Amino acid sequence: MDHGIVLVAGKKQKYFDEASYFAKSLKKHNKGIKIALFCDRTFSSKEFDLVENISHIGHPQKYKMHAILNSPFDRTLYLDVDMEARGNIQELFHFLDFYHVGLTHRVKCKWPPNATPIFLDYVDHECIQTGFMLFKKSDISTELISHWKDAFSKVPDSNISTGTPFGDQAAFNTIWPEWEANPYLKHIFLPNKIYNVRPWMWDQLNKDGLWSQTKILHTHGLNTPRHLVLLKKIKHRFSRIFQK
Questions:
Q1: C-alpha to C-alpha distance for 62 and 100, rounded to whole angstroms
Q2: Under 8 Å CB-to-CB from 224, ≥6 apart: which residues?
Q3: Which of 43, 53, 210, 239 has the fewest Cβ atoms within 10 angstroms?
Q4: How would you write 151-213 as a 3-class SS string?
Q5: For residue 169, what is the DSSP state?
Q6: Pairing verdict, β 3-9 and 35-39
Q7: pTM score, two decimals?
Q8: Residues 6+ apart with CB under 8 A from 200
Q9: Yes or no: is domain 3-243 CATH 3.90.550.10?
Q10: Residue 49 zone, left/alpha/beta (φ > 0; ψ -120 to 50; rest)
Q11: Mapping DSSP to helix (H, G, I), strand (E, B) and coil, where does residue 70 land?
Protein backbone atom coordinates (compact mmCIF):
# COMPACT_ATOMS: atom_id res chain seq x y z
CA MET A 1 0.00 0.00 0.00
CA ASP A 2 1.29 3.43 -0.90
CA HIS A 3 0.40 5.48 2.19
CA GLY A 4 -1.49 5.28 5.45
CA ILE A 5 -1.70 5.91 9.20
CA VAL A 6 -0.03 3.79 11.89
CA LEU A 7 -1.28 3.78 15.49
CA VAL A 8 -0.20 1.74 18.50
CA ALA A 9 -2.17 0.76 21.60
CA GLY A 10 -1.40 -1.39 24.58
CA LYS A 11 -1.79 -2.22 28.22
CA LYS A 12 -5.05 -0.40 29.05
CA GLN A 13 -8.49 -0.47 27.44
CA LYS A 14 -8.66 3.34 27.43
CA TYR A 15 -5.92 3.46 24.78
CA PHE A 16 -7.94 1.16 22.51
CA ASP A 17 -10.99 3.36 23.06
CA GLU A 18 -8.94 6.42 22.11
CA ALA A 19 -7.49 4.65 19.07
CA SER A 20 -10.97 3.72 17.81
CA TYR A 21 -12.26 7.25 18.35
CA PHE A 22 -9.26 8.78 16.59
CA ALA A 23 -9.47 6.33 13.67
CA LYS A 24 -13.16 7.19 13.22
CA SER A 25 -12.35 10.91 13.10
CA LEU A 26 -9.55 10.26 10.58
CA LYS A 27 -11.86 8.32 8.28
CA LYS A 28 -14.54 10.99 8.56
CA HIS A 29 -12.24 13.69 7.18
CA ASN A 30 -9.97 11.53 4.98
CA LYS A 31 -12.07 9.30 2.75
CA GLY A 32 -10.34 6.05 1.87
CA ILE A 33 -7.41 6.52 4.25
CA LYS A 34 -5.87 3.24 5.43
CA ILE A 35 -5.13 2.75 9.13
CA ALA A 36 -2.98 0.03 10.73
CA LEU A 37 -3.09 -0.67 14.46
CA PHE A 38 -0.19 -2.38 16.24
CA CYS A 39 -1.26 -3.63 19.68
CA ASP A 40 -0.78 -6.20 22.42
CA ARG A 41 -3.99 -8.21 22.12
CA THR A 42 -6.47 -9.69 19.70
CA PHE A 43 -8.58 -6.74 18.62
CA SER A 44 -10.94 -5.96 15.80
CA SER A 45 -12.74 -2.82 14.72
CA LYS A 46 -14.18 -1.67 11.41
CA GLU A 47 -12.08 1.49 11.71
CA PHE A 48 -8.81 -0.41 11.16
CA ASP A 49 -7.68 -1.95 7.90
CA LEU A 50 -4.95 -4.01 9.58
CA VAL A 51 -4.39 -5.08 13.19
CA GLU A 52 -1.11 -6.70 14.21
CA ASN A 53 -0.41 -8.20 17.63
CA ILE A 54 3.07 -7.26 18.86
CA SER A 55 2.78 -8.14 22.56
CA HIS A 56 6.19 -9.83 22.34
CA ILE A 57 7.95 -6.47 21.95
CA GLY A 58 7.88 -5.53 25.65
CA HIS A 59 6.85 -2.14 27.05
CA PRO A 60 4.04 -0.44 25.01
CA GLN A 61 6.21 2.63 24.37
CA LYS A 62 8.60 0.34 22.51
CA TYR A 63 5.78 -0.60 20.12
CA LYS A 64 6.15 2.77 18.41
CA MET A 65 9.50 2.21 16.72
CA HIS A 66 8.62 -1.38 15.81
CA ALA A 67 5.35 -0.22 14.24
CA ILE A 68 7.04 2.49 12.17
CA LEU A 69 9.75 0.12 10.94
CA ASN A 70 7.19 -2.57 10.11
CA SER A 71 4.56 -0.29 8.61
CA PRO A 72 2.66 -1.89 5.71
CA PHE A 73 2.82 1.46 3.91
CA ASP A 74 5.58 2.97 1.78
CA ARG A 75 4.67 6.35 3.26
CA THR A 76 3.62 6.32 6.89
CA LEU A 77 2.18 8.87 9.26
CA TYR A 78 2.66 7.62 12.81
CA LEU A 79 0.39 9.30 15.37
CA ASP A 80 -0.30 8.77 19.06
CA VAL A 81 -3.80 7.46 19.78
CA ASP A 82 -4.89 10.30 22.08
CA MET A 83 -5.76 12.52 19.12
CA GLU A 84 -8.69 13.79 17.09
CA ALA A 85 -8.69 14.66 13.39
CA ARG A 86 -10.50 17.88 12.51
CA GLY A 87 -9.73 18.03 8.80
CA ASN A 88 -8.17 16.41 5.76
CA ILE A 89 -4.45 15.70 6.24
CA GLN A 90 -3.67 13.88 2.99
CA GLU A 91 -1.36 16.73 1.97
CA LEU A 92 1.17 15.49 4.52
CA PHE A 93 2.07 12.48 2.40
CA HIS A 94 3.07 14.76 -0.49
CA PHE A 95 5.91 16.17 1.62
CA LEU A 96 7.51 12.74 1.30
CA ASP A 97 8.06 13.44 -2.39
CA PHE A 98 10.93 15.63 -1.17
CA TYR A 99 11.77 14.51 2.40
CA HIS A 100 12.56 11.29 4.23
CA VAL A 101 10.90 12.30 7.52
CA GLY A 102 8.56 14.98 8.81
CA LEU A 103 8.52 16.03 12.47
CA THR A 104 6.87 18.52 14.82
CA HIS A 105 8.34 20.36 17.80
CA ARG A 106 6.98 20.37 21.31
CA VAL A 107 5.06 23.48 22.39
CA LYS A 108 7.28 25.74 24.51
CA CYS A 109 6.00 26.02 28.07
CA LYS A 110 7.09 26.67 31.59
CA TRP A 111 6.68 23.30 33.26
CA PRO A 112 6.03 23.88 37.00
CA PRO A 113 5.97 20.66 39.05
CA ASN A 114 2.47 19.33 39.78
CA ALA A 115 0.82 22.28 38.05
CA THR A 116 -0.62 23.20 34.66
CA PRO A 117 2.07 24.08 32.09
CA ILE A 118 2.26 27.78 31.19
CA PHE A 119 2.36 28.63 27.47
CA LEU A 120 5.42 30.58 26.31
CA ASP A 121 5.57 29.99 22.53
CA TYR A 122 4.18 27.61 19.93
CA VAL A 123 7.56 26.03 19.20
CA ASP A 124 10.22 24.66 21.53
CA HIS A 125 13.14 24.33 19.11
CA GLU A 126 15.01 22.23 21.67
CA CYS A 127 12.52 19.36 21.71
CA ILE A 128 10.77 17.22 19.10
CA GLN A 129 7.37 15.84 20.08
CA THR A 130 7.36 12.18 19.04
CA GLY A 131 3.58 11.73 19.00
CA PHE A 132 3.80 12.66 15.30
CA MET A 133 6.20 11.23 12.72
CA LEU A 134 5.97 11.25 8.95
CA PHE A 135 8.18 8.54 7.44
CA LYS A 136 9.12 7.33 3.95
CA LYS A 137 10.69 3.91 3.60
CA SER A 138 14.31 4.38 2.59
CA ASP A 139 17.70 3.23 3.84
CA ILE A 140 18.46 6.52 5.61
CA SER A 141 15.10 6.91 7.34
CA THR A 142 15.10 3.25 8.41
CA GLU A 143 18.57 3.77 9.88
CA LEU A 144 17.28 6.77 11.87
CA ILE A 145 14.34 4.87 13.38
CA SER A 146 16.55 1.85 14.07
CA HIS A 147 19.04 4.08 15.90
CA TRP A 148 16.16 5.47 17.99
CA LYS A 149 14.94 1.94 18.69
CA ASP A 150 18.41 0.81 19.78
CA ALA A 151 18.84 3.82 22.07
CA PHE A 152 15.45 3.28 23.69
CA SER A 153 15.96 -0.48 24.06
CA LYS A 154 18.66 0.29 26.64
CA VAL A 155 16.05 1.80 28.96
CA PRO A 156 14.69 -0.87 31.35
CA ASP A 157 10.94 -1.34 30.96
CA SER A 158 10.47 -0.63 34.68
CA ASN A 159 11.95 2.87 34.26
CA ILE A 160 9.91 3.95 31.24
CA SER A 161 7.55 6.84 31.87
CA THR A 162 6.09 9.51 29.59
CA GLY A 163 7.45 13.03 30.03
CA THR A 164 10.58 11.89 31.86
CA PRO A 165 14.20 11.19 30.80
CA PHE A 166 13.07 7.57 30.44
CA GLY A 167 10.46 7.98 27.71
CA ASP A 168 10.70 7.39 23.96
CA GLN A 169 10.63 11.15 23.31
CA ALA A 170 13.70 11.70 25.47
CA ALA A 171 15.52 8.90 23.65
CA PHE A 172 14.74 10.43 20.26
CA ASN A 173 15.86 13.90 21.27
CA THR A 174 19.12 12.40 22.53
CA ILE A 175 20.02 10.98 19.12
CA TRP A 176 18.47 13.71 16.97
CA PRO A 177 21.31 16.30 16.95
CA GLU A 178 23.64 14.04 14.99
CA TRP A 179 20.85 13.13 12.56
CA GLU A 180 19.77 16.71 12.07
CA ALA A 181 23.31 17.43 10.90
CA ASN A 182 23.37 14.41 8.56
CA PRO A 183 23.46 15.80 5.00
CA TYR A 184 21.86 12.66 3.58
CA LEU A 185 18.70 12.82 5.72
CA LYS A 186 16.16 15.20 4.23
CA HIS A 187 13.77 16.30 6.95
CA ILE A 188 11.08 18.91 7.43
CA PHE A 189 9.52 20.43 10.54
CA LEU A 190 5.77 20.80 10.17
CA PRO A 191 3.64 23.27 12.16
CA ASN A 192 2.56 21.79 15.48
CA LYS A 193 -0.24 24.38 15.72
CA ILE A 194 -1.88 22.57 12.79
CA TYR A 195 -0.82 18.92 13.00
CA ASN A 196 0.08 18.28 16.65
CA VAL A 197 -2.03 20.69 18.67
CA ARG A 198 -1.32 20.23 22.37
CA PRO A 199 -3.78 21.70 24.93
CA TRP A 200 -1.34 24.27 26.35
CA MET A 201 -1.54 26.24 23.10
CA TRP A 202 -5.33 26.08 22.65
CA ASP A 203 -6.14 29.38 24.37
CA GLN A 204 -3.40 31.17 22.45
CA LEU A 205 -4.62 29.75 19.14
CA ASN A 206 -8.07 31.15 19.88
CA LYS A 207 -6.61 34.55 20.79
CA ASP A 208 -4.56 34.59 17.57
CA GLY A 209 -7.56 33.58 15.44
CA LEU A 210 -5.83 30.36 14.36
CA TRP A 211 -8.10 27.70 15.86
CA SER A 212 -9.92 27.08 12.58
CA GLN A 213 -6.61 25.97 11.00
CA THR A 214 -6.05 23.12 13.46
CA LYS A 215 -6.24 19.62 11.97
CA ILE A 216 -4.98 17.22 14.67
CA LEU A 217 -5.65 17.81 18.37
CA HIS A 218 -3.47 15.89 20.80
CA THR A 219 -4.42 15.20 24.41
CA HIS A 220 -6.05 12.45 26.45
CA GLY A 221 -9.81 12.53 26.90
CA LEU A 222 -10.80 13.75 23.44
CA ASN A 223 -13.12 10.76 23.17
CA THR A 224 -15.01 11.86 26.30
CA PRO A 225 -18.55 13.08 25.42
CA ARG A 226 -18.67 16.89 25.33
CA HIS A 227 -21.40 17.18 27.98
CA LEU A 228 -19.23 15.24 30.44
CA VAL A 229 -16.25 17.50 29.69
CA LEU A 230 -18.44 20.56 30.37
CA LEU A 231 -19.75 19.04 33.60
CA LYS A 232 -16.20 18.34 34.77
CA LYS A 233 -15.21 21.96 34.09
CA ILE A 234 -18.20 23.26 36.03
CA LYS A 235 -17.40 21.02 39.00
CA HIS A 236 -13.77 22.15 38.90
CA ARG A 237 -14.74 25.85 38.94
CA PHE A 238 -17.17 25.36 41.81
CA SER A 239 -14.54 23.47 43.81
CA ARG A 240 -12.08 26.37 43.34
CA ILE A 241 -14.71 28.88 44.48
CA PHE A 242 -15.44 26.96 47.68
CA GLN A 243 -11.71 26.46 48.35
CA LYS A 244 -11.37 30.24 48.50
A1: 22
A2: none
A3: 239
A4: HHHCCCHHHCCCCCCCCHHHHHHHHHHHHHCCCCCCEEECCHHHHCECHHHHHHHHHCCCHHH
A5: H
A6: parallel
A7: 0.91
A8: 107, 109, 116, 117, 118, 119
A9: yes
A10: alpha
A11: coil
d(CA 15, CA 221): 10
Report the C-alpha gap between 23 and 76 in whole angstroms. Answer: 15
Beta-bridge mates of residue 6: 36, 78
pLDDT at 52: 93
3-state secondary structure of 138: coil
pLDDT of residue 238: 57
Helix (H, G, I), strand (E, B) or coil at 189: strand
Question: In which band, very low, low, confident or very high, does the pLDDT at 49 lie, cut at 50, 70 and 90?
Answer: very high
Taking 70 as the threshold, does the pLDDT of residue 12 lie above it? Answer: yes
| Interval 110-138 mean pLDDT | 96
Domain residue spans of the chain? 3-243
